[in-house]
Every structure is written in C-alpha cells, then in structure tokens.
Design brief:
Number of domains: 2
Number of helices: 16
CATH architecture of the largest domain: Up-down Bundle
Largest sheet: 6 strands, antiparallel
Radius of gyration: 40 Å
CATH superfamily of the largest domain: Outer membrane efflux proteins (OEP)
Number of strands: 14
CATH class of the largest domain: Mainly Alpha
Oligomer: single chain
Shape: elongated
Structural class: alpha+beta
CATH topology of the largest domain: Outer membrane efflux proteins (OEP)
Length: about 650
C-alpha cells in the first residue's frame, strides 16, 4: 500500500496482489473486553421456573425461540457517510458484505438448521431436508448503456447446494427419547345377567377406578424396554365376591432385542452420523457463500472504479471536442477554414455528449447495485438512496504476478476448494446409508422377556354369602397390602420367546439397497467431476490472469501511441497540414484507447478475483475468518480518512 497524491487529496492505492492486506485486523475473541461479538442468529431458551425448573428439565417442556431476523444495517454503513457521500475502501466493502449482505445472512441459518436436524436424529427422529442453495451474487451493469435488469439480485438462482444426504431407508432407528405415560380412569357399569348362579344378582353393577403408569425406553443397541404399573379398584353389588371392593395390580417389565435387522449400533445411529456430516456440509456451504458474495462485491467495487474513470475520460474527450469546435468557429470567421468543418466538429461534440451520458448512467446504476449488495434495507433508507459512493481505492496493476508451477496450484486448489470437501463428506454419508439399507435385507428376528408381579387385596365383602367360602386373611387389606405382594414378587409370571418374520422376495429392501449403491457410484463420479472441474478452473483462471495482464500492457502501449498521434495531428492541423476530420478521428481513437485501458484494468481485477476463487483462497487473501462469516460481525473499525477526495455526483447531461 502506498500514498498517491492528487491535488490536495490523498488517494490510497492497492496493487491487486496485495488485496490480502486490506483487512488490518483479524477476528478478536468474543471474550475480549470491548469486542464481545454475538451471532445474529440465535436460538434462545427461556429461563426455567424458579422452583420446579430442575424437576421439569428432563421433560424439555421449555419452548426454545429463534431470535427475529435482523433487517437493519450495521452502524458501519452510516458511519462512512460524509456530506451526502458514502466513502468506501475495499476493506469497508468486505466488512459491509459480511455484516449486511442478505445472501450471506440467509446462508448463515444453515448451520443452525443442520444442528436442529442433528438434535432431531439424536432423539430418534428422521432426517429433514434443510439445504439452502448458494446465491450467485450481484453482477455489474452493462457497459453498453442503460441496463434494464441491473437489480443486483441473485434472482433465486442457485449454484447447486451440494447439500447433505437425506434418506430414510432400512431399519427404523430407535426412538432414543424415553416416554412416560400416566393414566387415571373411573367409571360405572351395569350388566344385566341371564344366569344368576355366579354373581347372585340379576344386574351386576361395578364402580371402578384404575391407575396406569408406564415408562418406555429404546436404546441404540436395538433394545427396547417397557415398565408398566397397573392398579385397579372395583366395587360390585355381587355377594359372591370374597372382597368388595377388590384391589388388583401388577408390575410388568418387557424387554425386546433385535437379533438380525436392527441389531447393530452402526445401523441404528446412522442418521446421527449423517446429520453430523450434514452439519459439516452446512459450514462448507456458508464458507462458499461468503467467498462467492465477497468476490461479487469486489467485482462491483472495481467496476465502479473503472466506470468513474470512464466518466473522467469521456469528460476529457467532451472538453477536447468542445475546444476544437470553438477553435473551428474562430477559424471560419477569419476565413481560414471552410464552414463544413464546423459542422463536423459540432457532430463530434454531440457524440462525446452521448458517450458521457452512457458512462454517467453506468456509474449511477452501478452505485445502486453496490448499495443493495452492502445493505439489508436499501429501499427503506432515503439517505442511502441519495448518497453518492466515492471509492477510496484505485486500481493499480502489479508489475508481476507471483505464479507457481501449475501442478502446485492444482494441488493447493484441491486442498482448499469447498466443492471437493462437500463431495467427500457426501460420499461418507452415502456409505453410512448403505449400511442401513443392507441391514434391511435381513429377516426380523426378535427375542423378548417378560416379568410380571401380581397382587390382590381388599376388605371382606360385607354381603358375602355363606356358601361362597372364607376369605384368606393374607389378602385382607388395602392398597398397601396389594403393593407389598407386588414388590415381594409373591405371584410372579415369567415368559420368554423368539419371533421371526421372513418377507418373501423382499423386493422393496433389495431395490433400496441397489439404489443406495447406485447413488454411491454417482457420488464418486461427482467427486471426480468436481476434481476435474477444479483443474479446469485453475487452468482457465491462470490463462485468464495472464491474458488480462497482456491485454493491459498492450492497452497501455496503445493509449500512449494514441496520445502521441493526437498531439502530432493537432500540431499538423495548427500548421495547416491536417484537417478537422483527421483531428476528430485521432480524438476518437484516443478515447477508445483510454476506454480500452480502463476496461483492461477492470478485467485484470476480475481475473485476479476469479483466480483466487478457483484456488479456493478468497477468504484467506482477504483475511476473512469463518468466525466473522458465521456471526456477521467484523471487529475491525472503519475510519474515514481526514483528507477526502472531492467527488461530485455524476449528473446526467441535459
């Protein structure tokens, strides 16, 4: 970086191979005093109740809330405005993109979405599709004149999300969140009887109430357990019952274990592992979105700089044409020049005005596109709409490019490119999914055990008939006696067994298994395709960078020759050797040469930015940390220099 003085104002110029020095400060840890940073995306948990909060915590009764979306701009944007001008340096553009750009803000939710899907699978739920496609980013306006589509929006176009795997084939994963069931029931029944011998009544009535408690739990090993407690109180009008009311109850434990299908931890936790891989993919998506958007914003900035230079060139061309027109008028008056030459000079003035109009229109439209890329609510801020962007940096082409051998560049790109990492992660997820579909080919073999403890109690029936027998004193009592019998295991039941289900042909599972294998082969081919594309990108970007430099150097030489040609033609004209037509042609040629030089400089910036994208180092060369991309907070402060360039708004000529 070095200072370049123009008039009494200092411009800061940057060579393109030093763009990595634009961000002077890296991310400062969130715990550092004065620089505490928090992400704009937050999932908040309400405070638990003061007394019973710890009791209710295992039941997760709290309703977590997602913080509202941030629709306002960061204070940095308004702090860069002075006297109706928005002064932007390259580092300010990068910081504003990270803080305010909506494409990055939308993608910033992806890791949080992936984390909630992981939370869902940890409880036994299925995977959900939460991929967010990559937005291509804004593009510059047309240089040919008024651009009717220069809205700077991505248009909803995605570059292909490259998202994680979402599949639910094979054995159903166990529900890892335990379940608790309570039931209390009460009722009254009246049953008319055709035979009174058993109950000694024509209509049997029953007033009852029962209580059921059940706890169920499934485990990652394919084991399931269920514990049930049942308590039943019955009051009947029959004198044949020994106890009235009678109290019955039992405690039942059931355990089941899959022995073939679903008998594998790697099969039962496959959704959890895939969800973790999808979290990696979501972070890679955010990294790619940040690099894509930053590159697009830098292209917008450097194009605006070149458009402003083009306006300056067109103003100079118009001033030259106007001076030639006025000089021709004077020469016609004294009779040293035919009147037709004045007409030719006037036509050139008109052409120069039209060229200036197009150049100024490009600047105005480019400012709109850049403002939209750097803000969240550009339409709601009248001051931003009225502000004129004044770039603080100028394009300066380095003397040489530090280019390493092509094999080294390709190796670096393979290690850095997000697309390669995404493909590798997706292949790993596909292999995990195949393990589940392969296990689904097995029969369902399940072993089970059941233990039940029973209890009976109650007071002696006051209307007991004399022929119904004598109650056993062991059962006389209340609920406590029945519970004691249950927990003493006085009346136990035992059962065990094995069940086997064999589906004939099993075409669905076979098709799923083959489908997953085919998709794995597709994923492997996509990885190879991505690797090939990275190689192509690096080669074409390198050629583009070399071509851009050669074009710039040629444009500089051509512009110098054009300046000399115009100067020679003007001298010849002053000595009566040349004509107005030749002078006008030399002016046009010089304007074209100057435009070509400015465009060549802009093309070089595009080529350098594209080369960094092809190498996968856009964030590194611009000193952007993933912490800044995730949180949307840049710790470095933006400072407007004391000496500001005197830039005026480009008004359209009337």
């Amino acid at each position: 970086m070095k200072g370049q003085w123009k008039g009494n104002c200092q411009y800061t110029t940057y060579t393109m191979n030093r763009v990595s020095c634009l961000l002077a400060a890296l991310w400062i840890a969130s715990g550092s005093p004065g620089f505490a940073q928090s992400s704009e995306v937050a999932v908040e948990s309400p405070k638990p109740p003061p007394v019973i909060g710890h009791v209710l915590a295992p039941f997760h009764l709290e309703k977590r809330r997602v913080a509202p979306a941030t629709l306002s701009n960061s204070p940095r944007l308004e702090s860069l405005v002075r006297a109706g001008n928005l002064y932007l340096s390259v580092q300010d553009v990068i910081a504003l993109v990270l803080e305010n750009n909506l494409d990055i803000a939308v993608q910033r939710y992806s890791p949080f979405l992936a984390r909630e899907v992981l939370r869902r699978t940890e409880g036994g739920g299925f995977l959900r599709q939460v991929d967010t496609p990559i937005a291509a980013g804004p593009t510059s306006v047309s240089t040919a004149g008024v651009s009717v589509n220069a809205n700077g929006l991505a248009g909803g176009a995605g570059l292909g999300s490259g998202g994680g795997i979402v599949s639910q084939i094979g054995p159903v994963p166990p529900n890892l969140d335990p379940g608790l069931y309570f039931g209390v029931f009460a009722g009254h029944t009246t049953t008319p009887l055709t035979n009174q011998l058993l109950n000694e009544t024509a209509a049997l009535t029953n007033d009852y109430h029962q209580f059921v408690f059940q706890y169920s739990q499934q485990f990652i090993t394919g084991t399931s357990a269920q514990l049930t407690f049942f308590d039943y109180h019955s009051l009947e009008n029959s004198p044949a019952n020994l106890f009235n009311p009678s109290i019955t109850g039992y405690l039942d434990l059931q355990i089941a274990q899959n022995l073939l299908q679903g008998f594998n931890i790697g099969v039962n936790n496959r959704d959890i592992r895939i969800a973790k891989n999808n979290m990696k993919v979501s972070h890679l998506q955010l990294k790619l979105q940040a690099a894509t958007t930053v590159s697009a914003a830098l292209n917008l900035y450097w194009d605006l700089v070149s458009f402003i230079d083009a306006v300056r060139i067109k103003e100079q061309a118009l001033a030259t044409s106007q001076k030639l027109f006025e000089d021709d008028q004077k020469m016609v008056k004294i009779g040293s020049l035919p009147a037709v030459e004045v007409t030719r000079a006037a036509a050139q003035v008109s052409v120069s005005k039209e060229d200036l109009l197009i150049a100024q229109t490009n600047v105005q439209q480019q400012e709109i596109v850049l403002k939209n890329a750097l803000s969240r609510n550009a339409m709601a801020n009248a001051w931003l709409d009225d502000a004129h962007i004044v770039p603080l940096n100028r394009i300066e082409i380095p003397k040489t490019d530090e280019i390493r051998p092509l094999p080294d560049l390709i190796s670096e790109a393979m290690a850095n490119r997000v697309e390669i990492d995404q493909s590798k992660v997706n292949i790993d997820s596909q292999k995990i999914a195949i393990r589940g579909s392969r296990n689904g080919l097995l029969p369902v073999l399940q072993a089970f055990l059941e233990f039940t403890n029973n209890g009976l109690s109650g007071p002696v029936n006051p209307t007991l008939c004399s022929t119904c027998g004598i109650p056993d004193p062991y059962f006389i009592g209340g609920t406590g006696n029945a519970l004691a019998q249950v927990f003493r295991r006085d009346f136990p039941n035992y059962s065990a067994g094995v069940s086997l289900t064999i589906p004939f042909r099993n075409r669905a599972a076979q098709a799923d298994y083959v489908t997953d294998q085919l998709q794995l082969r597709q994923a492997e081919l996509r990885l190879q395709r991505a690797a090939n594309q990275v190689t192509v990108d690096v080669k074409t970007a390198l050629i583009g960078l070399q071509q851009a430099r050669a074009r710039y150097e040629t444009a500089v030489d051509t512009r110098k020759l054009g300046e000399q040609s115009l100067k020679d033609e003007q001298n010849r004209f002053q000595h009566g050797v040349s004509s107005v037509t030749l002078v006008i042609q030399a002016q046009r040629d010089l304007a074209i040469d100057q435009d070509a030089e400015v465009q060549a400089m802009a093309n070089y910036t595009h080529a350098k930015i594209a080369f960094d994208m092809a190498m996968g180092r856009t964030l590194d060369v611009n000193h952007i940390s993933m912490q800044e991309a995730v949180t949307g907070r840049v710790a470095r402060e933006s400072v407007v220099p004391e000496s500001l360039p005197d830039e005026k708004r480009q008004e359209l000529p009337k």
